[in-house]
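Example 3.2
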Amino acid sequence: MSTPSWLNQGSLVLASNNKGKIAEFDHLFQQLDLPVEIIPQGKLNIEDAIEDGLSFVENAIIKARHASKLSGEPAIADDSGLCVPILGGAPGIYSARYAGEHGNDAANNQKLLADLAPLRKEGEAIEGMFVCVLALVTHAEDPLPQIFQGIWKGEILEAARGENGFGYDPLFWLPELNVSSAELSKAEKNEISHRGKAMQLFKASLI
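Structure, written as tokens:
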């Protein structure tokens, strides 16, 4: 397989202004050791795109095209969130603004707990899954965005546990490890998370 053309362009814009995501991606990209500079869009004064898609895939593409258009560079975007089947997939694409205010993790977690409280049955776990979709565009009007999707399954706790991570990590329980996502180190999380899985698929596309 030939080297992707965008790797020869010197830089790749990361279409995110979320500090938690940027920190995780920084670690993940370091492991890939790509011959390009990864530039968070904030360093280019690029504000967040208007996410008006109805799916993770649509929103990831919207964000990647937005960053690519304003930077003139290839761009990769992440759209991710928590899906809880018993809530019809909510919070889903609205995970970051579930309680109404974008990025208010505490309020979002409280709303999720409140929504699930009347649905809980003793002895039964409530399933949830973190979803990450990465979209890579070589230019703003790229007709063939590359899509990489990772899914991380777990359960939703009744109360927060752990101090690490961000978003819904304190409520995301991993029964096979007997810890919450927020009790994992950054390295441990990146090994098994939805974002880590999507990045592994991205890495495989480069080989």
